[in-house]
Amino acid sequence: MENLLDQYSHVVGNEVIDHLRQLANPLKGMKILHINSTKEGGGVAEILNRLIPLKRELGIDAEWEIIIGEREFYQCTKKFHNSLQGNRDEVSDNLLEVYKSTNANNFERLRSKLVDADIVFIHDPQPAALLSFCKNERKGRWIWRCHIDVSHPFRPVWKFLHEYIKDYDASIWSLSTFVQQLPHPLYLIPPSIDPLSEKNVELPEKEISHYLDSWGLKREIPIITQVSRFDRFKDPVGVIQAYRLIKKYVPVQLVLAGGGASDDPEGQQVLQEVKSFAGDDPDVHILELPNDAHRAINALQRGSNIILQKSLKEGFGLTVTEGLWKGKPVIGGDTGGIRLQVINHYSGFLVNTPEGAAMRIRYLLKHPDIVNKMGENAKQYVMDNFLITRHLREYLTLICALIFGSNDLIELKMPAQVQSV
Ligand code: UDP
After folding, report:
1. Cα of 132 from ligand 1 centre, angstroms
2. Which protein residues touch ligand 1 with a CB less than 6 Å away?
3. What would the pLDDT profile of 18-42 be if each residue is shown by its tens digit?
4. Which helix (H) or strand (E) is 255 found in, with range?
5. Mutation test residue for ligand 1: of 37, 85, 192, 297, the one with most atoms within 8 Å of CB
6. Whole-structure pTM over 0.85, yes or no?
7. Nearest to 168 by CA among 181, 148, 184, 146
8. Distance between CA atoms of 354 and 244, rounded to whole angstroms?
9. Which residue has the CA at smallest separation from atom 6 of ligand 1?
10. 57-100 pLDDT, tens per residue?
């Protein structure tokens, strides 16, 4: 069987893969450790699942570990998450102590790996305090990778986390508007999707129909879908409000599909709120899917007419990228990372209210030719900007910059030159 990297060349071309190999050459054998807070659910796990095997294939000794805590730890970090995205969610001193002690315990558990790694990527606030226990022991560079919208954080929480994050060697952000002042180099690297993952590969029509049938969805009636964890920032209630506005005029089916993430303690409560708001409308389908239901979500996105992501805050929104990649216009909340992906009137629409979303959905349902054109634009835009190969190239470039410094120029050769060397 063809090796993993060569499989990508069919999507992005040989030159892109060749550049990745050249960039990775000086990094061969290096230990790169990624730490986040869950292997299941949410965008970060989705990305790491795909990125680690690719780094390994390039000869890098990449590993992925998670920080593990008790219920109170996740309560605390969910409050961090909500506060960094702008809610005034006070965190008690008791929870802050749990945060510190959980990081201390995890440092002891992962000590040898953390100390030995050449590069440590710490994703989001949950494991951010690990570095403070490392003191002078560490061998490598540490990078804090922020996946959330920190454009208007609740200050006391940012101030608390800033004390840890300022000591990192660099940080990575998805959007310039999220960036906070820090005394180290700041990099802008948006996330990405993997075109070859189960979530995104082409699927046979038969398989798509099979999934839609199993959920009781009818293909002759338009399907509007939002795939998301049950989180208030994703505004599932606003999605139902938009659906009700359209339903008065045209038959339509709504799907809200989501599972939990092991680091999100609010999911069940939000799911109950959504179910009770939806009532017993037979055309609202709330699908609770297991975390590994990647092909099912792929089929749902492909079988839908329009993809929604009506978030009120969004670090990036892989669900938007996934929808665009499937040639669907996306109607997304006019916020954060969605603005980077949905080009208004070109690959979808940006909206601020349920009324706005309803108006744009009705417009698209009446204009299938525009749906097709926007869908083509959408796919091409992801191809050019948001595939894993671009993401990996930028990570490798950043690692080279941190390790070799800005004076050491890595010159990438064109394929013809490579053959003649
Ligand atoms: N996802 C999933 N099952 C679900 C809900 C979401 O597999 O029930 C996936 C979704 O397809 C996407 C990721 O989880 O790949 C969510 O990433 P996003 O950036 O949209 O949001 P986050 O959850 O990180 O806030």
Report:
1. 30
2. 42-43, 46, 199, 227-229, 257-259, 289, 297, 316-319, 322
3. 999 999 999 999 999 999 999 988 8
4. strand 253-258
5. 297
6. yes
7. 184
8. 9
9. 228
10. 999 999 999 999 999 999 999 999 999 999 998 999 999 999 99
